[in-house]
Amino acid sequence: MSKKLVAETIGTFILVFFGVGSAVLMGREIGMHGIAIAFGLSIVAAAYGLGAISGAHLNPAVSLGMMTAGRMTGGEFVGYAIAQIVGAILGALVILTIASGKADYSLATNGLGQNGYGAGYLGEYSLLAALLFEAVATFLFVTVILGATQAGAPTAMAGLAIGLTLAGIHLVGIDVTGVSVNPARSIGPALFAGGKALADLWVFIVAPLAGGAVAGLLHAAGVTRADTV
């Protein structure tokens, strides 16, 4: 189990380093499309590099979906979630340290790729819009993950399918919430950004966990699970 937790910590670090790092360090140069691709590539890298050890969940909402689908225990879920949050915090800290080396960077002005909604945040979408997007997008994301990794699925392509799904979700929703679909990804930057990022954080914990849990329950019920012979 300890080896799995180390893998989840490193894998979530990769997710934040690639995804949040692209937004903070290269956002003006690559735009939203580039950031979306960076998040997708982070999943591909972690899935093929560490997936054989831990499954490369990298996300408490994914782990909760796995638990409600009957693929992991409650204790395993807690361990994974803690490891994922630690990895995200470390990733955010490294990105902040690098960004702080740029003469004109200011955490208060430039941010740290934190998620949010409402006045002053990207498209200024409402709370309802943020909750709905995060819950639905996480449900779809976890449904794809459960389907791509189920028995009988072409698992050699699972990492690519999951990474492309996350990239697609970012192409839809960056302007809405910055896209979380992952409580750990949101917690890491918010702890350093503070203020509004911390005030908004509950949205990016509650909505993704709800979406992930429902995806797992439907999979367990056989609704989104392939019939086995």
Task: Write up what this structure looks like.
Helix 2 packs antiparallel against helix 3 and helix 3 crosses helix 7. This protein has one domain: Up-down Bundle (Glycerol uptake facilitator protein), CATH 1.20.1080.10. With 229 residues, the chain is mainly α. It is built from 9 helices and no strands.
Outline of the structure:
The chain is an all-alpha fold and 229 residues long. Helix content is 74%, strand content 0%.
Structural class: mainly alpha
User: Could you say how many structural domains there are in total?
Assistant: 1
Strand segment tally: 0
Tell me the helix content: over 70%
Mean pLDDT: 96
Q: How would you name the CATH homologous superfamily?
A: Glycerol uptake facilitator protein
CATH class: Mainly Alpha
Looking at the overall shape, the CATH architecture is Up-down Bundle
Stretches with pLDDT under 50, minimum 5 residues: none
Features of the shown structure:
Glycerol uptake facilitator protein; mainly alpha; 229 residues
List the helices and strands and how they pair.
Layout: H1 2-54, H2 60-68, H3 74-99, H4 107-110, H5 127-148, H6 158-177, H7 183-193, H8 195-200, H9 203-220
Helix pairs in contact: 1-3, 1-6, 1-7, 2-3, 2-5, 2-9, 3-7, 5-6, 5-9, 7-9
